[in-house]
Amino acid sequence: MPSVTFDHVRKSFGDAVVVEDFDLTVADGELLVLVGGSGSGKSTILRMVAGLEEVTSGTIRIDATDVTQLPPRARDVAMVFQDYGLYPHMSVRENLSLGLRIRKIAATEIDRRVTWAAGMLGLAPLLDRKPKQLSGGQRQRVAMGRAMVREPKVFLFDEPLSNLDAGLRAQMRIEIGGLQRRLKTTTIYVTHDQVEAMTLGDRIVVLADGRIQQIGRPIDLYRAPVNRFVAGFIGTPPMNFVEGGLREENGQLSFIAAGVSIKLRRDNAAKAKNGEPLTLGIRPEDLRLDTSPDRAAGAAPDGDALPGRVVLVERLGGTSHVHFDVEGGGSRLMASVSNDQLPDVGDTIRVRVPPERVHLFGSDGKTISNST
Amino acid sequence: MLRRIGLYAGLALAALTFIYPFLWMASSTFKPREEFGSLALIPAHFTLDNYRTMWARAPFGRALLNSTMVATTITLAVLVFGSITAYAMARLTFRGRPVLNAATLAVLLVPGQLTLIPLYTLIVQLGWIDTYTALIVPYLFNATAILMLRQFFLQIPQSLIDAARMDGMSEMRILFTIFWPLSKPVLSIVAIFTFMGSWNEVLWPLLVVRDQQLMTLPQLLTVFALGGGAGSVGVSLASAMVLVIPVVVAYAFLQRNFIESMAGAGIKG
Q1: B137: which residues sit within 8 A by CB, 6+ positions away?
Q2: CATH homologous superfamily, domain A4-233
Q3: Which of B163, B169, B181 sits opposite A85 (nearest CB)?
Q4: How close is the nearest chain A Cα to the Cα of B155, in Å?
Q5: Predicted ipTM of the assembly
Q6: Per residue in A306-339, pLDDT tens?
Q7: Measured between CB atoms, does B166 come within 8 Å of chain A?
Q8: Is the pLDDT of residue B221 over 90?
Q9: Which CATH number among 3.30.70.100, 2.40.50.140, 3.20.20.70, 3.40.50.150 corresponds to the domain A240-369?
């Protein structure tokens, strides 16, 4: 199986730059996820690999072959589209086999591959139906089957699950992951859904405004985001942010914001300057709810306790989200907690911020320190 | 219930006022000369003399063949060339596309009568007078058809084109194997309008064809009836029937598509 190499790829439409200096190698057999919000350029990158969009400058190579100027049919890649792109007037069998027939593959070989893909995807009983007679999940499978029968060098997935309902999306996500591991085909997968990115990707590329923000294994992006954008984008529920600054008193470093004073460890803030505006980030699952009423404020042994007033409790079953306003300040934070001791709306609570879990970001958004 | 009966009676009456003159015409072609004054729809003495006379006096069979050939060729050309042009205008990006769109629209603003004389002069220069070429070539492209097809093609999802390109199809193949089957409604509308328009055209053939053997049916009919060749109302009507029947037959074949597409014209597929 081949690799895909992007060499300083740039794409602009007129004056608007959509992708800037995209430079990356997708390893042989790897499942690489491109994730980002709308307008981040992720689909454009995929379409450039497919040959559906021209590259403004730079080159794209599949293995050693420069495919930058090749038409889609000469690239030996297959793509699964967001709205499936199934031919409505053809049966499932025809949809699956059309690409092979155009490539003049022998009929027996076409039969073999269609049977193989249909078996793998549970489409065998549906081969003579038209796309209109299929459910969303079945159409999705046909779209995948059409890519599989081609036995391409590279699979491209363009938000393939975004038209499915939540349950089906989770199921298809698992199927796609399993399929890719079995086939070992190099895959580039585009999504705006960071859960899909985290669960599917061998590596994730986070994009914003056409630029790579960070490349890494899912867990690395989660633990050590390089900037505030990645920190906020990766992880559900999203990271809490508090704007403030650093203060040093009697050798003790603290993060200070309206109503907030959090003691930090020295290694947290080694690179931060005193008084520089900073953003503190803390993941909801790292906040510890302290519901015992008799504790003194600000004296917890493993960090500082913020006093807060509960404004919303979202009960999700296994865990719950407690939204609270920090007293004396404007910050609204969220803690993800187990269901043991849930406060009610209006209750005053104390929330401990473990210093080893704190992320700090500079005024330029870049990470100063991550949790240890 | 009474209201309903009233409604249907009213509708039936309205329908009758439309269909009666046509039925009268049809039946009159089977009446002998003496019966033309009668409003009855069933001839008292059935006869085919009107048709025999007509057939004997002018080459109607040949004209029917000419008309069919000319109208069919033009319709096929308009569909093929029209959809190729429309596909490019709707789905391909190339330099000058906005100009092409505007120019196509501008063609519609020029009345056909205005171009008649320059076109005629051109045909004379080319030496095409009294040829099928003169009847066919000026109609091979049709701006209305291009714009209708373009509008329809714009609504076909981009992912189908993308998928087809990934499957290895050329643009031409995408047009004919993906777009055409999905565009049956608009293709049949364009086909019917083009066929009827070409079939009923009288003025242009009158200008460029003088040889009776090359005349189209409406042209021959006009020359025949206005030139006094018919000699009787019955014969005139018989020739009019010959003119109408192919159009009615074509409509009957395509009417399901036709009505569907008229009904669905405003609804996104």
Answers
A1: B128
A2: P-loop containing nucleotide triphosphate hydrolases (3.40.50.300)
A3: B163
A4: 14
A5: 0.82
A6: 888 999 999 888 889 999 998 877 788 999 988 7
A7: yes
A8: no
A9: 2.40.50.140
